[in-house]
TrEMBL record:
Parts of the chain that traverse the membrane: 156-176, 233-255, 289-308, 342-366, 378-395, 416-435
The name this protein goes by in its record: H(+)/Cl(-) exchange transporter 3
Coiled-coil region: none
SUPFAM superfamilies the record matches: Clc chloride channel (SSF81340)
Length: 456
């Protein structure tokens, strides 16, 4: 069994590494039978940096095509290259024998790439590495029982991961909704007998038949907690003082937590999530500290009365959950391109728990957020969003058997004759949209941008 090693300096490693993105130099090293060739064009280097020789329709490497498929970091700080036809050894390119080809097929699966902060992933390279990993698993699938079990685990790991993400996203959304309601009512008072209940549930427990908010003896205001019961000017001044004091305290605590522990927890997070799903790497943005601080901060910020919502942050939190759980499965955690499949499903789950719309979450992830969205990801996204919505419905955080805070209850059912008007609205919208698209194409074809692009 032959192996080919090359000792590279740190400077050469940055220029030629297939493991990390190139920094400062856009040149790449390619293996050909004739010798060593460097590509200085960054646009071409990104496309040509990976040559794959597997059974998914990619032609085998020849004397005119690069065949470097895989690079590994060894324990001695060197790089080892393996490919189906050629290998790089020191300063020369040498051909592999048939024995070496069999070694390349039977060797351990590739070590996955790790990108630096604020870098863009190489989609072709990572997907090629995943194909090599999948090919390795198929080659050992007949090794009963461990090969068979590992193959089945690898095949179902995607569904297991999105199931875990859906369960966790629904539970976290329910906890945030319950916590925000309790903290919001805390500004007015507290349930004397059961302090963990918000005002509505406290008064429900005190009234067996009818909920009476105005006459609820179980709920105690803050002036009453201070043994002041006369409802005069001083009583209402105390209420305003406690209300404003709790609001300022919650807002200040939110700002302090975000600034000190997790600066990435600020904002809605949706623009950054779109960048990450497009292939950009932001280390720590989907980490554990960001998840914890944003969960607590979202409860405090919503309860403080700030003019903000939880829809955008819920997408960020769901993606944090997806990123954390993806590391339980090396297939996704160590491959940035495959990890985006889990993050796309997580974004769908975030919209599902925020609006109570699983299908809307899938459409959001497909149309707005994701860059790489294969068909299998669509089904997994729907499954993840559906599980998250079911868990939120079971938790029933609003006490109304609804997954959203605001909903409409219709006292009358629609009749069959109303379908005519519904169909008319759909037909009218389709016609208007078609005419608009046609006029845009006609205008762009007739009037070209010539001299003044901003005006034209």
């Amino acid at each position: 069994m032959s192996e080919y090693w090359t000792n590279l300096t740190e400077e050469d490693s940055e220029r030629t590494s297939l493991i990390t993105p190139s920094r400062g130099d856009s040149s790449f090293v390619f293996g050909t039978l004739g010798g060593r060739r460097r590509m200085m064009d960054p646009s071409r280097a990104r496309i040509d940096s990976v040559g794959v020789d597997d059974e998914e329709g990619v032609s085998p490497a020849s004397s005119a095509a690069p065949a470097l498929v895989h690079a590994e970091h060894s324990s001695r700080g060197t790089l080892k290259y393996r490919g189906g036809a050629v290998a790089y050894n020191g300063t020369d390119i040498v051909g592999l024998s048939e024995h070496d080809d069999s070694y390349a097929d039977d060797a351990a699966p590739p070590i996955f790439s790790k990108y630096g902060d604020f870098h863009t992933i190489d989609w072709q390279r990572d997907l090629a590495r995943d194909r090599l990993r999948h090919k390795y698993i198929l080659g050992h699938k007949k090794e009963f029982p461990f090969g068979t079990i590992y193959g089945m685990w690898d095949a179902g790991s995607g569904w297991i991961c999105v199931l875990m993400v859906g369960l966790a996203a629904g539970a976290v959304a329910g906890i945030i909704d319950i916590g925000a309601r309790w903290m919001s009512d805390l500004k007015d008072g507290v349930c004397a007998d059961r302090f963990w209940l918000d005002r509505e549930h406290c008064c429900w427990s005190a009234n067996d038949s009818v909920y009476k908010d105005a006459d609820c003896s179980a709920w105690t205001s803050w002036p009453e907690m201070l043994q002041y019961y006369d409802k005069n000017f001083f009583y209402y001044t105390l209420e305003v003082f406690f209300y404003c004091g709790w609001s300022v305290l919650m807002a200040a605590l939110t700002v302090t937590l975000v600034k000190v522990f997790a600066p990435y927890a600020c904002g809605s997070g949706i623009p950054e999530i779109k960048c990450i799903l497009s292939g950009f790497v932001i280390r720590g943005y989907l980490g554990k500290w960001t998840f914890i601080i944003k969960s607590v901060g979202l409860i405090l910020a919503s309860a403080s009365g700030l003019n903000l919502g939880k829809e955008g942050p819920m997408v960020h939190l769901a993606c944090c959950i997806g990123n954390i759980f993806s590391y339980l499965f090396p297939k996704y955690g160590l491959n940035e391109a495959k990890k985006r499949e889990i993050l796309s499903a997580s974004a769908a789950a975030g919209v599902s728990v925020a609006f109570g719309a699983p299908i809307g979450g899938v459409m959001f992830s497909l149309e707005e957020a994701s860059y790489y969205f294969p068909l299998k990801t669509m089904w997994r996204s729907f499954f993840c969003a559906l599980i998250a919505g079911i868990i939120l419905r079971i938790m029933n955080p609003f006490g109304s058997d609804q997954t959203s805070l605001f909903h409409v209850d219709y006292s009358m059912k629609w009749t069959f004759i109303e379908l005519i008007s519904f169909a008319g609205l759909g037909l009218f919208g389709g016609i208007i949209g078609s005419v608009r698209d046609y006029r845009i194409r006609f205008y762009m074809g007739e009037y070209k941008v010539v001299s003044f692009p901003k005006i034209e």
